[in-house]
């Protein structure tokens, strides 16, 4: 297993039985707010970027900005590439300084997914970059990647073999979770998480966190979901923050005043999840 800040963060969370917030940011405001909120809570945080965000801002510019913001933080901060089926983007982010990447191989056959994921791990580990693996797919579409179709599920022993053969550092299991907002109460296979952690001793990543209950989060984190992803909730807070302020203040003409209010709304979301996942105060002074 490669050793860098991502691995240190999730390994400590797995051992400490808390969850680290993996937050999908999409601009300077959400990035800076997330890092500063985590520092105030004395918590680690994993800053996640979608392929769409990387292409929109540019890998080098995004990496440089992350380094500028994270270097001023007293809390551990890691940069992670979320769901990416594109090997070219994976390689670009590895070169440009991401701490970890999620190679989404759910669109491939199990044999091909194993072979390609192993190649990604070799490429990433050579540069000290960690790899999150995904082979079954998480239902729902996020930033243009994914599907609303029910994901393919493999027998537990096949998934364990995939983890062991590829050498990934973290795994995203399909356990009834979904991206976006849940249309009905999800039936989560928490035992599958326990079994995977027991067999592989690596952290699990929970995708589709927006909309789950505090009880569900607690059970999944206790089972071994050391990294918990949130995306939709932050996006909604961002849009609703602007909408609510401008509706209440239709004659508003000072952008910095509007941004300050939206920033406060975003900060509340970040703090809420950090505390709910139990990572607040986990960073010693």
UniProtKB/TrEMBL annotation:
One BP annotation, GO: carbohydrate metabolic process
Residues noted as binding dihydroxyacetone phosphate in the record, renumbered to the chain: 180, 208-210, 229-232
The organism's place on the tree of life at top rank: Bacteria
Cofactor note: Binds 2 Zn(2+) ions per subunit. One is catalytic and the other provides a structural contribution.
InterPro entries to which the protein is assigned, alphabetical: Aldolase_TIM, Class_II_FBP_aldolase, FBA_II
Keywords for this protein: Metal-binding, Zinc
Residues reported to bind Zn(2+) 1: 83, 179, 207
Keyword Zinc: yes
Keyword Zinc: yes
Stretches that traverse the bilayer: none
Gene Ontology MF: a single term: aldehyde-lyase activity
Residues binding Zn(2+) 2, per UniProt: 104, 134
Active site: 82
Short name of one Pfam family: F_bP_aldolase
Cofactor(s) needed for function: Zn(2+)
The name this protein goes by in its record: Ketose-bisphosphate aldolase
Species of provenance: Mycobacterium adipatum
